[in-house]
Specification:
Layout: H1 15-22, E1 37-41, E2 56-58, E3 61-63, E4 74-84, E5 99-109, E6 117-119, H2 123-132, E7 149-154, E8 165-171, H3 182-190, E9 194-199, E10 206-209, E11 213-216, H4 219-226, H5 230-254, H6 261-266, E12 267-277, H7 279-290, E13 294-300, H8 318-322, E14 328-332, H9 342-350, E15 355-360, H10 371-382, H11 386-393, H12 398-417, E16 436-438
Parallel strand pairs: 4-7, 8-9, 8-12, 12-13, 13-14, 14-15
Antiparallel strand pairs: 1-4, 2-3, 4-5, 5-9, 6-7, 10-11, 15-16
Helix pairs in contact: 3-12, 4-5, 5-7, 10-11
């Protein structure tokens, strides 16, 4: 079944595409976290709110919606540009003598009246996504990708939370923008977390900076250079993840100063969590391995080796080879577990900390992204074949996939960042989620 791992085909075919796609990539850097930063709020996108509820048409293109968060708080957001003056851009794609990133900060908000909902994609990002046209069976030009609104209100004042708001970082899949994790990030913020999502510039298909400047991915060109040479492909995969880990450690360096002033005062210092999907999940656990500032990490269907197929042995990342001594969660698509993912099995064997692993029956690789809610709307409204839905997001009911993903992720961070009670959800099978299958139930 085609997966999100083929997202960067962009005119490429064969092993090069398979390699980068099949690697929900990991990183190995251990760079000292000593960079300085230039920090400032990004220019907002002043779009009016799109309608909520089911998908509807605006003009002749389909408009889509995202599911509402389930926590007790409204959500606020601010986009921030970060500049790492100590690090030249590793991809060599910028004339600027530094590495620059865009992040989004989501947080529990107080009063939100008068604060518009933020868009999922800015116009320049939406245009590039439509041009990619990579979702199997879906005519991208029939969708108004810039019209989708998140449930986060721009620059809304933060709420006061009991005990402060723990910080969680998010890294997206290879080629993906940070905004494709909106469903999970908005939900965590509504439950009282401050969530910092990271765009990895020149990895993500497009990143829009203040002034409407858009920086596009270099990964298809890098994959073309690697061609069918396995050594060059491994080196590229290692670089992709090394850059992601370096980006993440720089963001950690920039916190809490990178947060809006009022949000900074509301966060809970100390324990920090991280999660990601695909390459972002790999990056989350590798960063946790390299940097003890990460207390707990969750990997949503990310391979932990530099391989061209999930089932290939060898080329383990250092996190898989060494293991972790702190809590981690593995969540796979249907069929991904310790028996089919050699790098996951290696991580499991070598780790001494608390760990859990589960799959969702019928879930696909993209089930842990916003596509889980967007694709069903497109298929239904455009009358596309059922096979298009299955090819993109699997066979699990979208509502069940979203609810399960949100619930297990929140339970994990509640347990390890808040010392909270998850009602035993992570201790084994639950009647609430019969589609969840645990790999194992090791001692607590």
């Amino acid at each position: 079944m085609p997966t999100r791992r083929t997202a960067l085909r962009s005119g490429l075919t064969g092993a090069a595409v398979t390699a980068l796609a099949a690697v929900p990539l990991a990183a190995l850097t251990a760079r000292p976290a000593s960079a300085t930063s230039g920090i400032g709020p990004a220019g907002g996108a002043g779009h009016a709110e799109a309608g909520r509820g089911s998908a509807h048409r605006g003009g002749d293109r389909l408009r889509l919606t995202l599911p509402a968060p389930t926590g007790p708080y409204a959500v606020g957001t601010r986009a921030v540009r970060l500049v790492d003056h100590a690090r030249p851009d590793p991809w060599g794609a910028s004339a600027r003598p530094y590495r620059e990133l865009m992040i989004s900060v989501r947080y529990p908000a107080g009063h939100v009246e008068g604060h518009p909902l933020a868009p999922q994609l800015l116009p320049g990002e939406a245009d590039e996504f439509a041009a990619l046209d990579y979702l199997p069976g879906i005519p991208a030009d029939r969708i108004d990708w810039a019209a989708t609104r998140t449930h986060a209100h721009q620059d809304a004042p933060p709420a006061r939370t009991v005990g402060g708001s723990p910080v969680v970082l998010y890294s997206p899949g290879a080629g993906d923008p940070r905004s494709f994790g909106t469903t999970l990030c908005d939900d965590l913020a509504s439950r009282g977390y401050t969530v910092v999502s990271i765009d990895h510039t020149y990895d993500a298909y497009a990143v829009q900076f203040p002034g409407e400047r858009v920086e596009k991915t270099v990964l298809p060109a890098e994959m073309a250079k690697a061609g069918s040479d396995p050594d060059r492909m491994v080196a590229l995969l290692e670089k992709v993840l090394a850059v992601r880990v370096a980006d993440t450690r720089f963001v950690l360096d920039a916190l809490p100063a990178a947060l809006p002033r009022a949000v900074r005062a509301a966060v809970r210092p100390g324990r920090v969590g991280m999660f990601g999907q695909s390459a972002g999940g790999f990056a989350a656990l590798q960063t946790m391995h390299d940097d003890r500032r990460i207390t707990a990490g969750a990997n949503l269907d990310g391979v932990l080796a530099y391989v061209q197929e999930d089932s290939d042995p060898g080329h383990l990342s250092s996190v898989a080879a060494d293991g972790l001594d702190r809590p981690f969660l593995l969540v796979g698509k249907d069929g991904d577990d310790l028996g089919t993912e050699p790098a996951w099995a290696a991580l499991w064997r070598h780790s001494t900390g608390w760990r859990r692993g589960l799959t969702l029956r019928g879930a696909a690789h993209a089930s842990y992204t916003d596509l889980e809610s967007l694709v069903p709307q497109i298929v239904a409204r455009l009358g596309l074949p059922a096979a298009v839905l299955e090819d993109n997001v699997g066979t699990l009911s979208p509502g069940r996939a979203i609810t399960a993903g949100r619930s297990y992720l929140a339970a994990f961070f509640d347990r390890w960042l808040r010392d909270g009670d998850d009602d035993g959800l992570l201790d084994g099978p639950s009647r609430r989620f019969p589609e969840a299958r645990f790999f194992d139930a090791p001692p607590r």
